[in-house]
């Protein structure tokens, strides 16, 4: 796969208007700078092994960690709950990460509940932090497959619409 799990989740949250362009929530992949006060960091994390296929290939569901920071507890808690709910609702969602490639996000499985980690002792700005840990099942699909060729049977939910459409 060309895009990492963190890149797929980043684009998903941007498409759902939960990150980057929404209400000043700056979002970063693989780091979170000291500023701004309101930020989301999305990190690739340990995945979960799921056996191997007959050819010997190991199946691993890649992991992500989402870290949220906000100076106001209630506001940050509302955003982290919205992100957790959005992740829980992903079923066969197409996410376009690159101009010529999309990914079908079959599932996001959170590994436990939202974790409020309080305030960092070194953080003199008294900002609250939360984390969400999850593993993904996703696959790359070329854009041409979405336009005119078959990519398998089932239904795909187009991001932001809540509408399911049949894929051939």
Could you tell me how far the N terminus lies from the C terminus, measured between alpha carbons in angstroms?
Answer: 22 Å
The CATH topology of the domain at 5-90 and 110-137 corresponds to STM4215-like
Radius of gyration, in Å, reads 17 Å
Q: Kindly estimate the percentage of residues that lie in beta strands according to DSSP.
A: over 45%
3D structure, described in words:
By secondary structure, the protein is α+β, with helices and mostly antiparallel strands. The chain has a domain at 5-90 and 110-137: STM4215-like, CATH 3.30.2000. The protein is built from three helices and nine strands. The chain has helices spanning 5-15, 73-88, 143-147; strands spanning 26-29, 39-52, 58-70, 91-98, 101-110, 115-119, 128-142, 154-158, 163-167. Strands 1, 2, 3, 4, 5, 6, 7, 8 and 9 form a nine-stranded mixed sheet that branches. The two termini are 22 Å apart.
Question: Would you spell out the secondary-structure blueprint of this structure?
Answer:
Elements: H1 5-15, E1 26-29, E2 39-52, E3 58-70, H2 73-88, E4 91-98, E5 101-110, E6 115-119, E7 128-142, H3 143-147, E8 154-158, E9 163-167
